[in-house]
Design brief:
The chain contains 14 helices and no strands. With 342 residues, the chain is mainly alpha-helical.
Length: 342
């Protein structure tokens, strides 16, 4: 192993260690600090004894811990979804929100939340909203992909994604206009993007299905690396291109849809975090980038959620507003750096 590779390995280990510590700190902050003051000694005791019967125990376990875990999981899913889409299009300025995938998921969730499509089967929630979000994400991705195969320009791809987002938003607005007032209020709050009110069964669902997808994606790291070098090279390495393309898109859409279903549309995490992971770990090797994006997405989203909760407490800011402040400058810098090639 060359000296350069040794230095790179050390750098990556250092970054993995730093990000892991930051995740522990951010989760701890989200559990300890809130609008209701609970001394650290009481928080520690409640967590240690898994005490949920008292008011403070309910706040810690069913509001703060569940939300903290949901932010970590959601950030990881969105980051890996963005990474897969960037590998698929071989373009670092695409992501689930930019390409309209989150908007498509939002549209289908609006059908569930603003109409009687659930037929009163509330016991199926959150599965109905998750399936609806997945269907909307996949449908939008198919449309964008069909156009992207005909047009090679990166700018055109961005425009297509934005137009799909506008179209989905237009249909959603029509649904809102005809919906009942009670349903509109819940949908508007959901559309702002927030991990508040997350239930433990939703977290379990995300951990089971999302965990399987993440393991599958990590197992596909070698084909992903080959795919980065071109479809012909990947095919020569024994990769079934048609099946692999479908698998990448399904995994990316499923991860983004799960987060959108439970937390609403969350912008820029899927676009910005994979690029940050490349800069931190100084590599395009997906064996490193997949776990790196998982951890980095978790800590960024967790910190953004903390800021959204506490910046103007007791008023809670929309999560997408905070992630936009974080992600928009990165998007602009990417566009400026690639102004010649796209």
């Amino acid at each position: 192993m060359s000296l350069m590779n040794v230095e790179l390995k050390k750098r990556q280990i250092v970054w993995f260690s730093i990000i892991t510590v930051l995740i522990i700190i951010s989760v701890g902050l989200n559990i300890i600090i809130g609008s209701v003051h609970i001394p650290f000694s009481e928080v520690y005791q409640i967590v240690l004894e898994h005490e949920t019967t008292s008011t403070k125990g309910f706040i810690i376990w069913n509001i703060r811990i569940s939300r903290a875990l949901a932010a970590v999981i959601g950030g990881a899913f969105l980051s890996v979804s963005g990474l897969l889409l960037q590998v698929f299009f071989r373009n670092p300025i695409v992501g689930p929100f930019i390409l309209g995938i989150s908007s498509g998921a939002t549209l289908m969730v609006s059908f569930v939340m603003l109409t009687t499509i659930t037929l009163g089967c509330t016991f199926l929630s959150p599965f109905i909203t998750t399936l609806a979000a997945f269907a909307g994400a996949c449908a939008t991705m198919v449309i964008v992909l069909s156009i992207a195969t005909r047009v090679k320009s990166g700018i055109t791809l961005l425009i297509v994604g934005l137009m799909m987002g506008y179209l989905c938003h237009a249909v959603t607005s029509v649904l809102v206009a005809f919906a009942e007032k009670e349903k509109i209020k819940g949908f508007v709050l959901w559309q702002l993007g927030s991990f508040s009110g997350i239930q433990w069964n939703e977290i379990q669902m995300m951990l089971i299905f999302g965990g399987i997808i993440l393991l599958l994606i990590y197992g596909l790291s070698k084909p992903l690396n080959a795919f980065l070098l071109g479809e012909e090279y990947a095919s020569s390495m024994g990769v079934n291109i048609k099946l692999f393309r479908i698998l990448i898109l399904l995994c990316a859409c499923a991860l983004a849809a799960m987060v959108t279903a439970v937390a609403g549309p969350v912008a820029f995490i899927g676009l910005a975090v994979p690029h940050m992971a490349r800069l931190c770990f100084n590599t395009s090797n997906n064996h490193v980038l997949v776990p790196g994006s998982i951890l980095l997405g978790a800590v960024i989203t967790s910190l953004c959620d903390f800021i959204a909760r506490m910046a103007l407490t007791p008023v809670e800011l929309p999560l997408s507003a905070i992630t936009a402040f974080f992600g928009a400058p990165i998007v602009l810098s990417l566009l400026l750096k690639r102004r010649v090639s796209i």
